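hey so i finally got around to running the thing on that chain from the lab meeting. sorry it took forever, my laptop kept dying and i had to restart like 3 times. anyway pasting the input first so we r on the same page abt which one it is
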Amino acid sequence: MTKSYPQGAGRGSKADKSATTSLHPQGAGRGSKADKSATTTLRAAIVGAGIAGAHCAGQLAAAGWEVDVFDKARGAGGRLSTRRLGQGWATLGSPFISAQRDPFRSVLRDWARKGWLEPVRGDVLQGRATVSWAQAQMQNHYRPTIEPSQLVRQLLGDARLHTGARVAAIQPRAIVLEDGHVFNDFDCVICSVPTPQAIPLLAELPRLRERLSDVRYRPIWSFLMRWEGGPAANVIKFDDELLNLAVRQTSGGSDLWAVHSTHEFAEAYLEASTEEACTRAASALLGLLGLPWPVDVEAAHLWRYALPENPVGSFWLSDRESRVALIGDGIAGAGVERAWESGLRLAQALVQSSEELAA
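ok and heres what got predicted. didnt touch it at all, straight out
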């Protein structure tokens, strides 16, 4: 199937050019308070370019807002970010994108029709070599066939993305970068990073900080591994206390897999070196698959904030007086679908309140 890539995903596109857009600190440039007297355009700053922040940004931009997205990484994606390889790409983040209900289910079906995703069908095994393998089912689960980060960039739409931008503080209608630059006079500032990362940014917003105090995350180690042999499958779900899942990658060669640990493994090796975690995981995999040859580990990443526990339970939180809102999985709950919907719901609420915000 020929794949039509998302708009803004290619070199030199509008999305790429937006990454170099310059802002003027302290409201001194375009969109400052002086300019706003002559226009009704609303402005938003979003911290974090994962799927929640990107979707919120794109929805606001489509409604006519000026939106600037700040992310400390080199590109958009969050847990849907991409690892470039000599032979292609791979992802150490979310192994699948799944949907339980509309509207996200319809979005995934549309992406599949465009060739950006493929449904997980068959070739799913569960068990371990020393016991038995059994066929397993995964309903409404999709694997990306293009780089997952491109899906997130597509959601950004006309919002401006600023990469390598480390935010040190969120203040009422303003953000402060680690280099000291202050950007203010926003009509709303939105934080979409995991709650342990959000809490230090909210020192001047104690009411929002307090709402996040009970949210906890469980970690996962993820590895890119190559091996020969093993069961004939594209997805392997392990009955094991150390490793949880292995997913054959759609790029980088048929022998390349993303292997995800259990939470228990990650908690046991939370402060271990990458080398030690790789050694332990490779040893466990050899036994689970019954492989006669060594496993090559090409990359590893510790996701400290992989699974939120005790999320706030609403799609978004806001402090109306300070014009600051929070979205993401620590607010709405685990999973790509909940994060996507979190960004959507806040954007809808802000658009509906546009007249009040512009007053």
